[in-house]
Amino acid sequence: MSDTHSNTVAYVRDTMLPQTEPPLTEKGALKWLRENLFSGWLNTGLTLIALFIIWQALMAVGPWLLNSVWNAGSLRECRDILDGATGACFAVIVDRWHQLLFGFYPRHLYWRPVLALVLLFVALSPVLFPSLPRRLLTFTAIYPFLAYHLLWGGSVWLPIGAALGFVVGALAYIGLKRVNNLLAVFGAVLAPVLWWLVLAGPFDSTMSAVLPWGLEFVRSDRFGGFLISLVIGISGISLSLPLGILLALGRQSDMIFIKSVCVVFIEFIRGVPLITLLFTASLLLNFFLPPGTSFDLILRVIIMVTLFASAYMAEVVRGGLAALPKGQYEAADALGLDYWKAQRLIIMPQALKISIPGIVNTFIGLFKDTTLVVFIGLLDPIGLSNAIRASTDWNGIYWELFIFIGLLFFIFCFGMSRYSLYLERKLKRDHR
To answer: What is the CATH number of domain 92-105+220-432?
Structure first.
């Protein structure tokens, strides 16, 4: 033992101090309040002002909400029940909930959109949660055609014929890849288009005559409410992401023609309001189609909404690509990977992680923009609320309908934002 140790060992504690509780101001709710609401004189003043405003709002709205009427057949009955008192008439929600959710969809067929919604979560589960079995992705690929048949009905061979177009494209790619990769890509794009334009119709007619299987057909003008918002929103979200990725890659391409096309498309779409594109889909698109062509209005709107969202998505993804250091691209080249393998294995996973907030923000904006279809005659929740308010039973109702519509939109948008936060925490993009 050294001399220094022998002279200092008496001053070294050989037992641990007993654990004690932290001060009340350093734990639990008091700590949160002190750090977030009362950390300084300015923060304290703003907190007191906010509490005063919230109190005044609750005093104004609280009695109206607490004195609600839920069972009445008209606004007049609501007012008779309230007898001059202040109160909300949420009976309109009870009386017209089916219209707000399903529009004019036949009541005896409500099980079809409900089943399509349930199956949507099943189809999304392997995409949103990678821990689930990859075999579920097969159902994810089948779901769009199944959902179309459930919602619109008609012959079962129509969605099957549409699905066969992708099979034809895959076979064309496999067959032409032996000749040339670029030719294989063009073949994979042109073969499905030719199938859908030339052979899909005769295939549907022939098979329907031989085996007339299908569900009761529902016209598109029977769609409405949140049903049409979900159809347009989910279709636009699912289609705009891959198209936006391709546009972002095309804008960064060294091929002048591809880059020019992508730049012109993105800048043109971003410079035109969505409502203009919707009017184009509703009024002008038929002038460019052959005479007698029947092009469903909802399908036209989905195409325009997808193109609009894909332009914004392309810029979000391009921002993620630009944020990657040049060394990542050089590392992919050093490994001997071709362009598509480098994008799939190295570049794009990192770029998409960086772009998560912007991607989800675009999704949320797209879903809320589906309410603009009311201007072209599609009865979304806003359009149906106006129709309900115009009826003799509920003429004069206002806040109750829009509170219900806003609450449902908030649930969907808040769910997307929370999943975005979950995905960011899981990927921990700020720590890797």
So the answer is: 1.10.3720.10
431: tokens are 């720590």
State phi, psi for 154 to the nearest 5 degrees: 85, -160
Alpha carbon distances (Å) from 264 to 75, 258, 359: 53, 10, 21
Domain range annotation of the chain: 20-82, 92-105+220-432
Residues 315 and 267: beta-carbon distance below 8 Å: no
**How far, in Å, CA of 14 to CA of 24, rounded?**
30
Residue of 113, 97, 98, 124 whose CA lies nearest to 416: 124
Question: Along the 432 residues of the chain, how does pLDDT read in single tens digits?
Answer: 455 555 555 666 677 778 877 776 677 777 888 888 888 888 889 999 999 999 999 888 888 888 888 888 888 888 888 887 888 888 899 888 988 999 899 999 999 999 999 999 899 888 888 788 888 888 888 999 999 999 998 889 989 988 999 888 888 888 888 877 778 878 888 888 888 888 888 888 888 888 888 899 998 889 988 999 999 999 999 999 999 999 999 898 888 888 899 999 999 999 889 888 888 877 776 666 666 556 788 888 898 899 999 999 999 999 888 888 888 888 888 888 887 788 888 888 888 888 888 999 999 999 999 988 888 888 889 888 888 888 888 888 888 899 999 999 999 999 989 988 888 887 775 544
Q: How many helices (H) and strands (E) does the chain have?
A: 20, 2
CA dist list (Å): 280 to 64, 272, 288, 305, 328: 43, 11, 11, 11, 42
Write out the two tokens for 84: 């001059």
